[in-house]
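Please go through the sequence and fold tokens given here and tell me how the chain folds. Record follows.
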Amino acid sequence: MSKKILIVDDEKNIRDLLKFNLENEGYKTVDASDGKEALKKIDPEIDLVILDLMLPEIDGLNVCKNIRNNQAIGDLPIIMLTAKGEEIDRILGLELGADDYITKPFNTRELIARVKALLRRIAMTKNYGKKANKVIKFKNIIINIENHTIKKDGEEIAITPKEFDLIVFLIQKEGQVFSRDQLLKEIWGYEFAADTRTVDVHVRRLRKKIDQNLIKTVRGVGYKFEKME
């Protein structure tokens, strides 16, 4: 079944460009020109959102926050579009739960590659869970790969697709140290133009949500997972 992508941008030419190219790749698309309209159009049939930051009515950061705070759609994959000079907004977007971002002006082929990589990684994680019926338990944490959920002290934690992929990957490679570049390739599925801050933001969010000592920093190298005794 074709994946359905919501394109949110106030520039009609960008929406039309993305619709044309995504539909040529076999995706279904729906679009919105502002944040308010976007939130109305998000439903369980949407598989991914391409979200511009600078939007009328409700800006992209608040749209992202609304999605992540909604239990029914909280794990919806989000790729943010940002202007080149908006580094602080990109970091805020990642902090609020965006899975990826790309700067304007962007290469359409690169954006489509990122869409494919994000959807492929989610599908792989879900298929792995179904085959293995895998449940990972340690201390007060339960990770259910099939259901794509994490519970701490019996309470489910709001988790984004990339946060989930990152913690599962590190747990399955317990004790191994990975550089930020390696994690970008393994989790995001492509080279990230050396922008490793994305990894740092996701690690910081996981530490905040699960445990500060869960993912260890290996100075000058990267990160590794160590179980809490």
